[in-house]
Amino acid sequence: MQFGIFSVGDVTPDPTTGRTPTERERIKAMVAIALKAEEVGLDVFATGEHHNPPFVPSSPTTMLGYIAARTERLLLSTSTTLITTNDPVKIAEDYAMLQHLADGRVDLMMGRGNTGPVYPWFGQDIRQGVNLAIENYALLHRLWREDVVDWEGRFRSPLQSFTSTPRPLDGVPPFVWHGSIRSPEIAEQAAYYGDGFFHNNIFWPADHTKRMVELYRSRYAHYGHGTPEQAIVGLGGQVFMRKNSQDAVREFRPYFDVAPVYGHGPSLEEFTAQTPLTVGSPQQVIEKTLSFRDYAGDYQRQLFLMDHAGLPLKTVLEQLDLLGEEVVPVLRKEFAKNRPADVPEAPTHASLLGGARKGADAGREGART
To answer: Residues annotated as region Disordered (predicted)?
Structure first.
C-alpha cells in the first residue's frame, strides 16, 4: 500500500499572524514538503492543478520535473490533471516526457477540477464537463498505446497519422487514477479502462464514499478486469496532529474556522464527526484511517492533505515528521494484516512493465503452440 500527501497549492493568509506568503514562497514550500515526504519514508507526492488565484500550481509537470531531479524514490503524481480543459495531446507528451526524466516515478490523476470559470478560459463549456472528460481521456488512452493515431471527435480538431512524442517509457504509459468526489460517470470511466479510482473523501461522509467505491468495484468486475476486490482504489484524507489531542484541536481551530474550503460552516467538532478529517493525536489518526477499510475495502493508496488553510511551512514539516515516524509505519503493518493474497499492490512503473512483459511472453508462447 502506498502512503503519501497531496497539495492543492493554496495561498492563504495565516489567521494567527495575518501574513500571506508570496507565490514564490508557496511554490518553494511545496517543493520542501515533497522533499520532506521522501525523507520521512512516504511513497507519493501529488500536486493539484489550478489556473486561478489563490492557487499556484498551474504547471504540474514543471514542479514535478524539478522535484524528480531532487529525489530518488518518491513517486510523483497529480491531484488532479484537468482532463477537461487540457489538450489530451499535450497531456500525452508532457507526462511521457516527465516519465522519462523521472525514470518511471510518475502517475497521474484525471479530474474535472472544482473551478467553473476555468472552462471558458480554455475555450470549453462547463456544461460539457463530463463529456469532455470521457472524450479527452479516450483520446489520451490511445495516444499512449498506439504509435500512429487517426481520430475525430467533438471537442478538438481531428488527428491524421499523428504520433505523440516522446513515446511512453519502456512502452508502458503512466498509470492513471480517475479522481471524483460525486460523479458516478467518472467511477464508470475508471472501471471501463481498468484504471484506478481515487475518491477524495475529505469532505463527504463514509456512506457516500462507500457507494462510490462499491460502484467502481462492481463495474470494474463487469468489464472483466478482475474481481471487485482486485480493483485499484485510492482515498484522500485530512489530518492535523500533535502529541496531545487537546493541543492539536487548539492549534488547528483558527485555521479550520476560516479555511476557504470549509470555514464559516460546520464546527470543527461537527466536521470531524461527519467526515474523515482527524484532528488529534497520532493514535487517533491511525484509528480513523484504519476505519476507512471498513467501507472502502482493501485499497492501494492513501494520500493526506496537510499543507492548506494558511498553515506555516514549519508546522507542515512537523506534521510530516509525525506522519512518517509514528503513523505510517503502524498503518503499513495494520493494513497488511489479513489482506487477501489476490488483492493487488499499488501499481508502479516496474510492476506495469513486468505485467506487460509477461503478457508479451504469454502471447509468444501461445503463437508457438
So the answer is: 1-21, 339-369
